[in-house]
Amino acid sequence: MLLTRLKAPGFDFAAIRSEFALSETFDADVMREAVQARDLHADSRIDRTDIPFVTIDPPGSKDLDQAVHIEKTSNGLVVHYAIADVGALVIPGGALDAETRRRGQTFYLPDGSVPLHPRELSEGSGSLLEGQTRCAALWTIELDDVGEAAAWTVTRALVRSVARLDYAGVQADVDAGTPHPSIAALSEFGSQRANAARRRGAIDITLPEQEVVPDGAGWRIVLQPRTAVDGWNAEVSLLTGMCAARIMLDAGTGIVRTLPPAPGEAVETLKRTAAALGIDWPAGASAGAVLAGLSADKPSTLAMMSQATGLLRGADYLAFDRTANTVDSDASVEHSGIGAPYAHVTAPLRRLSDRFATEVCLAVVAGSPVPEWATQALPELPAIMRGSDSAASKVDRACVDLTEAHVLKDRVGETFDAVVLRGAEGKRDAEVLVSDPIVIGKCDGEPPAGESVAVRLTQADTDSRKIAFGYSPVTA
Question: 18 phi and psi, to 5 degrees?
Fold first, then answer.
């Protein structure tokens, strides 16, 4: 949904690449390994090219980690989820292995990505491209009649995608009643898993995301609200990650994503916000249940969701190996936002830790020893992923901030209509969303949370990438 046509003039994001030392180039040894990558497990794969997988990704994406197929049975649903088997293409201890540990993940900027792996692998031999037979870690997950996982397994397989789909196209097909046959049951799956999430007490914060997109010689900022298909597709990855976490925890070896329970003061603050916004919070209801019941088209929902981000702080990674006595008995393995243990395994072309977690799961399910190269790396992975996650978040924000400043640099002093996402709290300024042009910025004064107000632009500096607004209440 594009809410503005106002664009920033031509500029690029080279300064941000330089600031964060992001390089798209790889040295000769890394390139050689990527170009010559061969399936290290070719002799042990099962052939599942009979399953008509499809991929669902943003338009233009070439680093396709996942392909899905969902079928109905007399007992429920069966999800087949093929994940690019990067562990079979990267030589342990080689130059490419070392380089990916340095990078941690793929970084996405508006004018192009900085990939974790050379594109010859991430967008070529390792990508689940349409019509190509590829090596994959194939998850098969059986769900009961209410959408709970009843059984799961993972094995190395050959797979082939029959269609390359995007979110908007899938949503349009679903709305027209003509979904692709391979995902005809996706909406049923998504609904069942959303209900399961509420039963677990999961917290789903569905704020629209700012995205910088090309517009001729310049750029514009759009808001990308999450569609139903976005949510359903995300549930496939969440389900797989929950099964993977269970496999690793039962085996005593692996790496999981963790999130501590929301502190009591954050919940109380959210309750006060709800009261101020006129949002009902029934006695005994969880924060997740209250958020799930909000209407998507109300300004108060944006304010409530913005405040709710305070519930999801402290995300981390926990690596453990019971055989090496590296298990911290006091460490929590739960991801409170999901309401269950969870692990990253579904994006190995773009995220380092997924390759190692997948390798652990494959070995455990096969009844084989976990490869030494995987267990030796586990203790290093949390720090690598923390650092790369932090850098990726800063890069995303810097790109948006730079574009916002360019969009607004000649409009300081003008007044704009805005929705107050968050009121001022102590030393923290309020935050407002301006819809034309789409920007989010700090706001001086005390604008009321969840209200539509007029604000004045007080700063738009392209050098510091900062914008700011001011609010003065209208007096009679």
Answer: -65, -45
Which neighbouring-strand residues pair with 260? none
Is the bond preceding residue 437 a cis peptide, omega within 30 degrees? Answer: yes
| Cα–Cα distance list, 280 to 140, 197, 258, 277, 406 (Å) | 40, 21, 30, 9, 40
DSSP class per residue in 301-335? HHHHHHHHGGGS---EEEEEEGGGT---TTS--EE
Burial 125-152 (b: 16+ CB within 10 A, else e): bbbbbbeeebbbbbbbbbbeeebbbeeb
Residue 293 has a CB neighbour count (10 Å cut-off) of 12
Smallest CA-to-CA distance from 200 within 171, 228, 170, 239 is with: 239
- The string of DSSP codes covering 61-74 is -----EEEEEEE-S
Instruction: Enter the tokens of residue 346.
Output: 């579904």
Q: Of 411, 298, 296, whose CA–CA distance to 4 is shortest?
A: 411
Give the containing element (helix H, strand E) for 274: helix 264-277
Q: Which of 60, 82, 50 is nearest to 165 (CA)?
A: 60
Q: Find out whether 357 and 251 touch, Cβ atoms under 8 Å.
A: no
Distance CA 60, CA 158 (A): 24
**H-type helices in 333-439, by residue range?**
352-366, 372-377, 381-408
Whether pTM > 0.85 for this model: the answer is yes
Residues 418, 434 contacting (CB under 8 angstroms): yes
Sequence letter at residue 466 = K
Report the DSSP beta bridge partners of residue 141: 79, 152
Lowest mean pLDDT among 214-228, 359-373, 431-445: 214-228
- Strands (E) across 225-276 are located at 253-258
What is the sign, positive or negative, of the torsion defined by CA atoms of 52, 57, 61, 63? negative
**C-beta separation of 467 from 397 below 8 A:** no
For 341, phi and psi rounded to 5 degrees?
-60, 145
Measure the CA–CA gap between 388 and 103, rounded to whole angstroms: 7
Q: What is the DSSP string of 418-437?
A: EEEEE--BTTBPEEEEEETT
What are the tokens at 145?
Answer: 């009649």
> What is the token pair recorded at 366?
């096969």
The CA distance from 456 to 86, in Å, is: 50
Q: Are 237 and 339 in contact (CB under 8 A)?
A: no
Please count the residues of the chain.
Answer: 476
Is 90 exceeded by the pLDDT of residue 184? yes
pLDDT tier for residue 1 given thresholds of 50, 70 and 90: very low
For residue 350, give the 3-state DSSP assignment: coil
The three-class DSSP label of residue 263 is coil
Q: Which two tokens stand for residue 124?
A: 């070529």
pLDDT value of position 358: 98
State the chain's mean pLDDT as an integer.
91
Q: State both tokens at 251.
A: 């085996």
